[in-house]
Amino acid sequence: MSASLPGSRALPASQYDLDTYWGRVRHSIGLTDPRTLLVNNAGLEHCKQLLIDYKQGKIPEMTPELWRAKKVVDSTLHPDTGEPVLLPFRMSCFVLSNLIVTAGMLQPGLSTTGTVSWQVANQSLNVAINSANANKSSTLSWGQMAKSYAVAVSVSCGVALGLRGLVPRLRGLSASTRTILSRLVPFAAVATAGALNVLLMRGEEMRTGIDVFPVLSAEDRDKLEAEGKTDKDVASLGRSKAAARLAVGETAASRVFNSTPIMVIPPLVLVRLQKTEWLKARPKWVMPVNLGLILGTSFAVLPLALAVFPQRQTISVDRLEPEFHGRGGEGGMVVFNRGM
Q1: From CA 219, how far away is CA 7, in angstroms rounded?
Q2: Of 98-107, 149-158, 225-234, where does the model show the most confidence?
Q3: By C-alpha distance, which of 296, 249, 247 is closest to 270?
Q4: Which three-class secondary structure state does DSSP give residue 152?
Q5: Is residue 88 assigned to a domain?
Q6: Are strands 312-316 and 333-337 parallel, antiparallel or unpaired?
Q7: Quick check: is 70 in a domain?
Q8: pLDDT, tens only, 147-199
Q9: In the chain, N or C: fewer CB atoms in 10 Å?
């Protein structure tokens, strides 16, 4: 993320007011913009250099070109490590990466083996995305990651197979209702396991805590700048389990907020479209139309879900463990990276 770049001058956090939901939505639209995936290494280095020049005072003010550079850098680099997130696991690639797995899960007439295979693929992708975008204060060992992965896969497969077997037994429902429910099965498994996956893959954060930092006043920032330092030079107050529980819980909730509209809207719209003469005459178009509905809904919903909670979370120090009380920054507040 741009905050990790050298230079004593602080970059503005966003073009938009991150204290408001709609400001965060507009900011998240930039972070999830798939066009940033087209920027190659040379382009990324150019964007980084523009921001470094601003932070070192060589460029006097933010310009449209600098805002674009910040969007590219923020959507590419991890906020804790300053290193690029592997392309398929960036939030700007979230919809496209998930669409591949979704297409597999929606194949008609999937066998039990096929259902299990695609749920495994889905959870593997979830593990990679959650790990790549987590707070890096605490990391899972390979053993812990394998254990959490096995539990997430077991739950997702259990939900998918259980619901798939349950729907045909609902004799009291009409055929159209059973059709709708059968279309919701893959997404119900995705939503359930998606939230659980976050909780499992980031469990180490809740066990050991994450770094929290004092919120700096304008005077503190001016002092840092005069010393040639940045926010990155501010020492952590320590690791807080309370902050970790909040961060992980909010991220899990945002996954549910993201998947729920995708669970509901495309299946219901598709059922209606299948009653039209156009789609009845073109049954081969059902899958492409369904994927198009999922793609459009996913792109629309993702920024809305990510913006529900701020990525840089600011809370009162009194909400943390007693050892942090009285040690907050401006207004008794601390800040930490929630992760995405």
Answers
A1: 18
A2: 98-107
A3: 296
A4: helix
A5: no
A6: antiparallel
A7: yes
A8: 777 877 777 677 666 766 666 666 666 666 666 666 666 666 667 777 777 77
A9: N
Helices (H), 35-141: 41-55, 64-76, 94-105, 112-132
Q: How many CB atoms lie within 10 A of CB 60?
A: 7
Q: Are residues 227 and 99 in the same domain?
A: yes
Count of CB atoms within 10 A of residue 135's CB? 23
Q: Which residue among 52, 77, 102 closes a domain?
A: 77
Tally of domains within the chain:
2
Amino acid at 270: L
The residue range of the domain holding 109 is 94-337
Structure tokens at 153: 């896969």
Q: Does residue 160 belong to any structural domain of this protein?
A: yes
Residue 137 dihedral angles phi and psi, to the nearest 5°: -65, -40
* Contacts for 267 with CB less than 8 Å, ≥ 6 apart: 180, 183, 184, 187
**Count of other CB atoms within 10 angstroms of residue 200:** 26
- Cα 244 to Cα 209: distance, rounded to the nearest angstrom: 5
Tokens describing residue 274: 């299948």
3-state secondary structure of 84: strand
> What is the DSSP annotation of 314-329?
EEEGGGS-GGGTT--S
In a domain, residue 89? The reply is no
* Final residue in a domain of this structure, among 43, 77, 111: 77
